[in-house]
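G., the chain you wanted modeled:
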Amino acid sequence: MPAWSIQQAKACFSWMLKTCLRERAQVLIKGGADVAFLAATADWDRRQHAEKSTLKALLLTNEALGELNIPARGGRRRRQVRVLR
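Predicted structure as C-alpha cells:
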C-alpha cells in the first residue's frame, strides 16, 4: 500500500482520497510507523465480512500438519517401585 506522512495527507487529502477510490487503500505514517489507513467503503466492507479463520479451521488445514519427532516407547526397562509400609 502506498504510504503517506501525516503532513502529506493533510496537504493533499482530496488527491489521496481519489487515489484510494481509484486504486487501493492508502497508509498513513506518523513517526516512522504505520498508524492508520484510508480505504474505500467497499474495500472495508469486504475486509470486515471476510471469513475469519478459527483455530479449528487452522488445525484442520494441511498447513497445521507437521512432523513430530516422537521417541519410540517401551525400549527402556522401568525401575522397580518399592511399597512403603
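The beta strands are 3-5, 26-30, 33-38.

Shout if anything looks off.
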